[in-house]
Design a protein that fits this description.
The chain is mainly alpha-helical and about 160 residues long. The chain contains seven helices and two strands, in the order βααααβααα. The chain has a two-stranded antiparallel ribbon with strand order 1-2.
Length: about 160
């Protein structure tokens, strides 16, 4: 199965508006390339709609009873849980996708992990993430010091 970085927002922060705010911040301030890192109910609804109506989507999860709901996706797939970020650290070969993991890690560092559930999150600290992703970024010629640099305005510990 591999090693995953899993980051879970605190229970009182696992709602769409907060996840969207964090997702935007990850792109604007931390270098994420994907604008959906922490899952939202809205996103899961789009995925469920796709699986229930689109010809390609109907072919996905053929063993699941239709209609598939957003709750079904949330409850059955760890990478689709609302308010969570999941990224496979081991075996990653795409540096663009890996930038999202770096962005989440930097956000956690800048906010001193104040928005995450530390008991439910794992493999999210810089040392662990870097141990898996550094060879990938070195091979691609990235400047590692710049890659891990925190935005100076973010040192004030705020989400916005």
């Amino acid at each position: 199965m591999g090693t995953y970085m899993t980051v879970v927002l605190r229970e009182n922060l696992r709602y769409d508006a907060f996840a969207k705010l964090v997702n935007k911040k990850l792109v604007v301030s931390y270098g994420a390339k994907n604008d959906l890192n922490f899952n939202t109910w809205e996103y899961l609804q789009r995925e469920a709609d796709f699986m229930n109506a689109d010809p390609e989507g109907l072919g996905q999860l053929p063993h699941f009873k239709r209609p598939i709901t957003k709750e079904t996706l949330h409850n059955n797939f760890f990478w689709l849980r609302v308010g969570e970020f999941s990224f496979k650290l081991s075996g990653t070969s795409n540096p663009i996708e890996a930038l999202d993991a770096i962005a989440v890690c930097k956000w956690i560092m800048a906010t001193k992990a104040s928005y995450i559930d530390k008991k439910m999150s794992f493999n999210y600290n810089k040392r662990k993430v870097a141990s898996y992703l550094t060879p990938l970024f070195e091979e691609e010629g990235y400047d590692l010091k710049k890659l891990w640099e925190l935005p100076t305005a973010e040192k004030n510990n705020k989400i916005n």
